[in-house]
Every structure is written in C-alpha cells, then in structure tokens.
Amino acid sequence: MKWIREIWQSIVRRDPLSTDKGKSELVFLNVWLHIHPAKVKKENLRFKYSFYLGFITFFLFLILLTTGIALMCYYRPYPPAAYQDMKDLQFAVFMGSFLRNMHRWAAHAMVVCVFLHMCRVFYTGSYKKPRQFNWVVGVMLLLLTLGLSFTGYLLPWDQLAYWAITVGTNIGSYAPLVGGQLRELLLGGHAVGEAALLRFYVLHVAVLPSLVILLTIVHFWRVRKDGGLSRPIWKLKPQKTEALVTIGAPAAVAPLQVTAASKDKTYGLMEVVTGKPIFETVTPEEEKDTVFSYPYAFVREAVALMATVTSIMAISLFFNAPLEEMANPAVTPNPAKAPWYFLGLQELVSHSALLGGVVVPALMVVALILIPYIDRNPSRRPRERKWAIWLFTFFVVANIILIIVGTFFRGPGWAWVPPWVHVVARPE
Amino acid sequence: MERKLQQLFFALSLLALVLILVAEWQASTPSWKPYQRKFLQLEAQEEPNAVSKAAVLATPLAINQVVLPGLQRVDRCTTCHLGVEDPTMKNAPGPFHYHAGLGPHVPSKFGCTICHGGQGLATDMKDAHGNVAFWQTPLLPADYVRASCGRCHKEGDVPGVPELTEGRHLFETEGCHGCHKLNGVGGSIGPDLTEEGANHRSPEWLERHFLAPNAVSPGSAMPNFHFTREQARALTYYMLSLTSGDMGSYYSSERLIPSPEYGRQLFVEKDCIVCHAIGGVGAKVGPDLLGVTKRHSDEWLDEQLVNPELVYPGSSMPKYDLESNARKALVAFLASATPKDAQDILASKGHALTPEDAAIEAGKQDFARFGCAGCHGTELQGGVANPNAQGEQVPSLLHVSDDYTKEEVIGIIRDGRVSPMDNPKGSAPPLYMPSWKNVLSNEDINHIADFLWSKQQKKESW
Amino acid sequence: MAALCSAVGVSLGAVVRFLVPSVFYGPPQSFKIGNPGDFPYGPPTFLADEKIFVFRDRERGFAVASAVCTHLGCTVAYFQNDRDFHCPCHGSVFSPTGAVLHGPAPRPLNWFEITLTRDGQLRVDKDKTVPPTYRLMV
C-alpha cells in the first residue's frame, strides 16, 4: 500500500489537513488556491459585510464560461443559421433549452451582482487608500460585463436582439467626432447585418472574456496585496487601532511596531526583505481574530458557489429565455428597446441625444473612476462620510428609476404609457 | 456554525444534483416520444409474427427531419406524423393517418410546411403547429391548404385547385389592378399585393375582407364588391399564393405540371411533325396521331415514348430520353391536338416537308445519342484536339462532301478509320473513328449520312 | 463519497449526451430509391449521390452494395466483365461479394439493408449493414 501513498504524495505534497502546517500548505502550495491568504480575519467571513457578492459574480462568470462553451457546439454566428440554431437548441438538442436558459439568466444575474458588488464596496468605503486602483479595475470589469451582455444579446438574431442592438449602437454613434466611425467599426457596416453578428460573436466569445479574465486576475491580486478584504476597524477595540499600520501610511504615525515573531506564524521571506509588512501587522492578541482559510473561508465560498449554481438552475428550469420571431430589418417593433441595463440610457437619449446619450453617461463613468481620487476623506466609517453616501445613493436610485421608466412606462413611439394602461394594437 | 455551513454545503450540492437530474429527465422525455411509441405499437400490430413484431418495437426513437436547402427550411413534422407515406395507415388515429394524393410532393423532397404552414423546426405539438407567439405562419386551416399549390405552380390551371384559376380570373376581370399593384402593374391606391402571400395574414381575415372590406379594415377605401362566398374564397386562395419567397428554381418551374402547352412546345422542339401527321396534316412516315389518346391508354403511350421498338420492332422512331413529366405533357397535348395545331406547326417550320426530313431527323437523333457529337461537335464543327493527327484535331464534318462521296462516308462509319498521322515517326494519335457496323443498323447509318449531307456547307459559301 | 461519485457521473453523462447530436444535417442515412420497376436486371444501377450500387437479380432479388472503398473512402467502379469492384485511388479490387481480392483495403465492401415500404417503394438503410448473401425478393 505504500505505492498508493507514494502516488498520492507526488500529487498532493502537503502535510495532512489535521495539522496547522497542512492547512497552510493547502493554500500556499496549491496553484488554484494560493491567491487566498493562509489565514483570514474573522470579520471578513461575515456574510452581512460583503454578502459574498464578489465571489457570486465570479461564480456566475464561471457558469457563463462553461454554458457558453457548451452552446458554441451548436451555434453558427451567421444569419439565418443563428436563429435556426436557437430553435434547434430549444427543440432538438439534449438539455439545449436548459443550458441556454442558464446562460441567459446567469448573464442578467451577473450584471445585477456586479452592480450590487460595486455598491457594497462603495458603502463600506473600500475604495479608499490603498485600494483605489482596484476600484478602477472594478469599474473596468463592470464596463466589460455590460459589453459582454450587449454583444451576447445580438446572437439569437431575433427581433428583440436585432432592434436592441440597432438602438444600442445608434446611441453610441452620438459620441462626438468618433461616434459614427466607432459604430461602423463595431457593426462592420452601416447597419446591423452579417458582419455585425460575426464581430459581436468574436467579441463575445474571445476578446471580451479574455479581457475579463485578465482584469479579474489583477483584481484578485490587488485584493490580496492591498491588505485583503477591508473590515470595519472602528468596531475594533480602541488600542488595537493605533497598533495597526497600513501600506503607505504617512510617516507621521508612530513608527512600525515590531512584533515578536509568533511561533505559530510563518513569515514570507519577501515581507522581511522589503522591510514593509504587507499585512496589517497583527499582534499576538489579534491572532485570535484570524482563522485558517481551510475550512472557514473555503466552506463559505463553497456554499456561495452552490447557492449561485442551484439558484440559476432552478430559475432555468421554470423560466424560458425569450425568443421572438427572426430578425427582420424591414419590420421595426414599436417601441424598439435596448437591453434592460441600457434602458436608463435610452430614456436619457429620448430627452437629448448628445446630452443624454453621450455627455451624461460619459460623465457618470468618469466620475465613477475618479471616486477614490476625489474622495479625500480617509475614514471608512459611515457617520463620517455622509456626503459621499448620499451622493452615491442618489446616483444609484436615479439609475434604477430611469431603468424602471424605460422598462415599464414607455410604450409605442416612446410615449408615456404607464403599465396599468392597456394598449390595443391596431390592425394594419 | 461551521458544522451548519458544512451541512448547508452538502444540502445545496444535493439540491444541485437533483436539479440537474430534473433537467436531464425533462430533456429525455420530450412530448414526441410517446407518439412514436404509439405508432410503433400500431405498426407492430400489423406484423405477422412475434419476431418481426419485436423488431419493430425495438426501433430506436429519434427526431425525424427533412433538410431542404432549396426551400430554406428544415421540417420535423414526420417525427410524429409517421404514417404520412404508409397506405396501410388510412384509418389510423391521431397524427398517424396516411396522406393521400401526395403524388410527387413527398416529404423527403418538399417537407410539409411549404404547403401546410407551421413551425417545422419544433418538436412539440403546440410549437410545431405554430399557434404560438412569435411564429407568423401557423398551420393553414384545412379549407385553405390547397391554396399553397399556387405558391409554386403559378401558370396555367392547377389540377384539383379550381379556386386558384377562378381567383386569378376574378382579379383580372373585377379590375383589382386599378387600385392594387401586382408584379409591378397596377395602381397605388391600395397596398401592393405582389407578396401578399408572405404577409402572414390569416385566411379567415382575407376572406372576411373580400366579403366586407370596411368591417375588417375600418376607413378602407375598398368598395364592397358583393362577392359570393365562393368568389371570396377563390380570391383568398389567390392571395395566399402570391409569394416569390422560399422557392428554389427547381421548385418553381412552371414545367413541373405536365400541361398541354408544354407538350406542344416539346412536339415542336422534337420535330414530331416530320414523321407524324395530325388529322392528315403533316408527314406520313409514322402513324397519324389524331385521337391517339382514345385508342391507347396513357401508360401505353408513355411506354411508346420511352421505348418505341417495344410495340413496333424495327420502328424508325428514335428514343428521345424524355423525363416522365415531359412524356406526360406530350400525351396531354396529343389528347387535345387538332389538324389546325399541325398546320400552325408546319407553317412555323418555314419549308415544306419532304420524305427526306424524316430520315434526316432520325439521323440527327442518332448523331446525338451515340456520342458522335462528342468528337465531331454538336454543330459538326470538329475541333477536339488529337495530337499527331493530320490537322492536329478531329475534323469538322461540315465540308466532308468536298472530299468524300456519300458511299465513302457510309463506309467509314461502318468500318471505322485510323487517323492518318502527321509525323509517321511520332506516336499514334489517341483518337480514331471507331467501327459502327455492329452497333448501328445500315438504315441508321444511312440516316446519319442523310443528316450530314443536309448540313453541308459548300466551299464557295465560306 | 458515493454521493460525489454519482454526482460527477451524472454530470459527465449529461455532458456527453449533450454533445451527441440528436439531428443530423447531412444527407439522410435511410432513404427511398424508387419503385422496384425502376431498376433493370443485370448490371447494377449506380446512385452517385447516395454512393451505392443497386443490384437486381431475376432469381434472388435486390441487393445494395456500398460504393465507398473501405481503404480511404474513394468511390469504386463496377466492371461487368468480371463483376468486380475496382478502386481508382490505390488499386483495391473487391470480388462480386465485396471481399477484398487485392489492394490495401482492410475490410470488405459493406452491403446495406434494403426493404420494401408500405407504399411499395424500396428503402435503403445505410445504418444497417447486412451479409453479402442478403437479398430482398419483390
């Protein structure tokens, strides 16, 4: 039986998980897990702090990757085959409709969760020093998520897809100077057609996912290097607060605490060499507030993963993703609406093309990116950030209202038609 | 807490497993499978013994589809409608009954939706019958299915669908062109009807519209023509047939129906008047064809056209290699041909018939059938390369009378000839005139010579 | 542990089944070739699109041979003198029963099931191979 042990040891090099050393080695010797710290602070495990939204978004992305690749086996990115393949998936492929539903609902969920995650990070002030750049990376990821959802929206090639993208790219064309050219570049032509479908397909399955993966790597890396998940330090006992040092701390603060090395803790060589501790220096008393990632963090991640997967599966079993009639350039549905996350934008555009379609959204994005650099208040404590919180809440609520208006209150001709008014279609 | 989390993880994993199993079960039990099982049971009942019964019942269940690139569609109707081509299923229940009267319109060539409407790609009943949101061509009601014939057969009468002819006729005589454009001709007061069949209107709407336009389209300028029910229906049929949409050229050829008009065309093309007369007008080489369809059955006449020697061994009537619809068209023409037709055809020939015409026509047919044209050209121009032969190519036959007498040519055809070499030391030319005496009768060879002589161009006329 | 294995097994099964196509877009494997009366006795009728030879024997009935060489897939030609099949690509020769006489072909030519449908047509099923002695009497 020694040979079984030998084979096992050659693959799994760590000590048994019953030992502390083994628990640490599981993390830092494992290629998939070594982005985690070997030990995490207990507060970071609290569901009510982060709602695990970052992880949920990542898991949704994994679902989208796997279901997306599966769907690629049966999808041809040129009209009219694209529409026929959607019907084939629905009627003639084993579990085709289930997989397509999973892909569609996970996509919508990811847009929502990215947005909620951004809100959480803002409300906990976790974009402040030293995490400013990670916030910027996050905004990039938000834009990429919207881009992925938008490019994927065209692929079914039905009326919904065709006109949503027509409207969406037309909104984009209002950008000054480059708008028209950008639109033609995106569409590979003057109108949505074969070239557009192929380009959107390439963007959707190759270019944008690669960018998302690259930026996600940076995003996770920066989480670790910026000091892990933020935590409400004002809730800690007062003397601990002073003892903490963070990266880039102003020299005015007391010099670095020198802490006697704990016999339970292993220090990475790189930490000693640079002379700067990468973690917030932890006193032995505080050690009690950390636990090993295995099993405490991993079990929570696993639960989050399973909850995400089962929710998407359950929704996919009961709700079918829409498929309207095949794209018909000659027939415009009235009203023609962009995908729901752009409906706020479309509502703005209906008031003013340049202002609503270009200026305001551009300003919103720029403002988002600059938040960590504009906000000079170093405190993350809510009562010390009232202005910031109110402003951001206003921005969030305004967006939601615009989307609600665009979804439910706009009828044919973009006229104001509340949802409780029944519109009778006139025969032609 | 940790324990509870672990339990939660396992519970959720179990739930995920259950959900996948549910999804798999859903995917494995589509609604078409019970139909196929039922059909196999019906088929098994007809089988004579237990072994063949078991063989039938063991047939694997699968989606049946017909891929029709020419019609740009894929039809899966035969997944459930399994008895469509099985005459023993005349009285079968539900979707299994036999579709009588298909003729050449078999599912493997035409699918089903081209005539019946519906969503061919679907595999459950409601979606396949098309009465669902976002599918614009649901099943045509039974009363209107025959209108679909007009989508391909746009010329002439369509057998079995007098409504189309009547509808077309009414459209012309009631002055519809005055307000509606059709194929570029007409007024602009009402909508263009060229593609009305593609507008996905329900047949019932169209018919109601013809009976009372303003009741269906309030404020319409179309007057009430007080059509009868039958007239409204005929016009509806005609409207439903107006589309150029999904037809590949194979499917839209008017020649698909063997009509007497097409038969007349063929009669002229094949120069039948050169040997046959109709009511005494024409040539006397072969039998007079007036009333021939009353003397012989259609099958006999068809066989005659395929193999003239069958009934009259030694007949000089050539084999024409006509396809079955072309033969049917000829027979249809003969059923109604009169001496006047023969006179018109003769008049269009430009010169009086001579007895030699029959021989020349026979020779022409033989020249084509036996491949002479392959070396000597369809216009007798020659020109096929023959290295190291004199002239380096197969000679043209247009001036053969300058160098040879007719008897010499007949001799060459009978005995064949090795091509004279340009360079005696070089390799033999690959092409040579074969000997035909064992393949062609003397009479055939004489006819070919007659044909060649009829085509000669004198040197002075160059 | 057992639960984990069954979960993995079920998921793998689903993945594999998903990838197996339920409908095919090429020419059908089972098709009608016409009425028995359309086929002459003597030398076989070659159907180019379906790549089959349809033999009709006065005593024994119908048989259908594949025209696809078992070596690398070229279309073989039938020669009436010796009643054998020759492949032009690498010179394989098959006997009248499809057995390999010489050449690089590894297997004999396939013979396909031919049946009579209820509306009196001949149906060939390329998914069902039969021994060379199989005949359909009509």
Structure characterization notes:
The complex is a heterotrimer of chains A (428), B (462) and C (138). By secondary structure, chain A is mainly alpha-helical. The longest helix of chain A has 32 residues, at 194-225. A two-stranded antiparallel sheet of chain A has the order 1-2. Chain A is globular. In chain A, 59% of the residues lie in helices and 1% in strands. Chain A has two domains: 1-31, no CATH class; 43-228 and 293-414, Cytochrome Bc1 Complex, Chain C (Up-down Bundle), CATH 1.20.810.10. In chain A, helix 5 packs across helix 6. In chain B, strands 1-2 form a two-stranded antiparallel sheet. Chain B has a two-stranded antiparallel ribbon with strand order 3-4. Chain B has helices at 2-28, 32-46, 50-57, 107-110, 113-116, 125-128, 162-173, 203-211, 213-216, 229-240, 249-252, 260-269, 292-295, 298-306, 324-336, 339-349, 355-369, 372-376, 400-403, 406-415, 442-454, and strands at 66-68, 73-75, 277-278, 281-282. Chain B has four domains: 32-128, no CATH class; 142-251, Cytochrome c-like domain (Cytochrome Bc1 Complex, Chain D, domain 2); 258-351, Cytochrome c-like domain (Cytochrome Bc1 Complex, Chain D, domain 2, Orthogonal Bundle); 361-461, Cytochrome Bc1 Complex, Chain D, domain 2, CATH 1.10.760.10. Chain C is mostly beta strands and 138 residues long. Chain C has one domain (26-130): Rieske Iron-sulfur Protein (3-layer Sandwich), CATH 2.102.10.10. Chain C is 13% helix and 36% strand. Chain C has one helix spanning 2-19, and strands spanning 30-34, 42-47, 52-57, 61-66, 77-79, 84-86, 93-94, 100-102, 111-116, 122-130. Chain C has a six-stranded antiparallel beta sheet, with no helix packed on it. In chain C, strands 5-6-7-8 form a four-stranded antiparallel beta sheet, with no helix packed on it. At the A-B interface, helix 5 and helix 13 of A face helix 1 of B.
